[in-house]
Design goal:
Blueprint lengths: L3 E4 L17 E2 L8 H15 L2 E4 L6 H14 L4 E4 L5 H14 L6 H11 L4 E6 L12 H6 L7 E6 L3 E4 L15 E6 L6 H10 L4 E3 L6 H5 L4 E7 L3 H9 L4 E2 L6 E2 L28
Parallel strand pairs: 1-2, 1-3, 3-4, 8-9
Antiparallel strand pairs: 5-6, 5-10, 6-7, 8-10, 11-12
Helix pairs in contact: 1-2, 3-4
């Protein structure tokens, strides 16, 4: 069975991008369910799929993360990876769907988990906001904060890959976009504007635009429900697979999984520096 990609809310389980996209395992209200019930749900996923990658955002309540850590500890399992990318909720949902696409391919669980870190570099995520007064995840200067109190003001904010805040209606009201072909996903909250579709999409030369419901965690992440969140992403499975498959793989020196990058997402081990002690039995023979 392919590796399971789990999310912590139904609004992070976006509709399938193509016929090969696997469904997401939704661990909704896992912090509110009895521990025994939550433990059984995750244990069943592990038994059915071999490995589970749980993707969640920085706005996910701390109680959810504590419950996930507790479950992983109680199961004493190195087959559960917890992945919280530094992205807004809609981008997290897109990233989880990309992993669901890749889960149908011949990628081991360690490579698939590490692919999430790689693919974040190809996401451009931001939002159109009606206020900056409670935005604390992106640097905002005092002048911009002051302008956000002017009635009717709107601000275009890029959170990733390079933080940027511009006020609509000014000459510099542009956000740097991707220099490769992408699609655009838009989620509208309590803000009325067509700027994303009429201005941003053409400027970023996106190949297509789709809409999705605004994730529940977005209001907390952006500091306001008066937002229109957006993310530009690579939609094609063939491109995603080529990106991941082109990276050199190596075996994790601790758990043995094939991985890409400098850290195993399942056991959190990093390659040992020269001369460090390695687990018993892994030393190269002498002589």
């Amino acid at each position: 069975m392919p590796t399971a990609i789990a999310v912590t809310g139904a609004d992070l389980a976006l509709p399938a991008q193509d016929e090969r996209t696997l469904p997401a395992a939704v661990l909704a209200d896992i912090d509110r369910a009895p521990l025994e019930q939550a433990l059984l749900a995750v244990q069943t996923l592990v038994e059915q799929h071999g490995h589970v990658i749980v993707v969640y955002s920085g706005a996910t309540p701390a109680s959810v993360e504590r419950r996930l850590l507790t479950i992983r500890s109680l199961l004493e399992s190195d087959r559960i990876a917890l992945f919280r990318p530094d992205l807004p909720p809609l981008a997290v949902a897109v990233l989880a769907r990309q992993l669901r696409q890749l889960a149908s391919c011949d990628l081991g669980p360690g490579v698939l988990a590490a692919a999430g870190r790689l693919l974040t570099h190809y996401l451009h995520a931001g939002a159109l906001l009606g206020t900056l007064s409670r935005l604390d995840r992106i640097p905002v200067d005092l002048k911009a904060h002051a302008r956000s109190w002017v009635p009717g003001s709107q601000f275009a904010v890029l959170a990733h890959p390079e933080p940027r805040v511009v006020r609509l209606g000014t000459p510099d009201a542009r956000l740097p976009g991707p220099d490769f072909g992408t699609s655009l996903l838009v989620a509208k909250g309590q803000l009325q504007s067509d700027w994303v579709g009429t201005t941003l999409a053409p400027a970023w030369q996106v190949r297509g635009l789709r809409e999705a419901p605004l994730p529940a965690e977005s209001a907390d992440w952006w500091g306001t429900g008066k937002a229109i969140e957006f993310v530009a992403y690579l939609p094609d499975l063939s491109v995603l697979y080529q990106l991941v498959a082109s990276v050199r793989q190596s075996a994790c020196h601790w758990c043995g999984l094939d991985v890409i990058g400098d850290r195993c997402v399942f056991c959190s081990a990093t390659p040992p520096a020269y001369g460090e002690l390695q687990p018993y039995g892994t030393h190269a023979p002498v002589g």
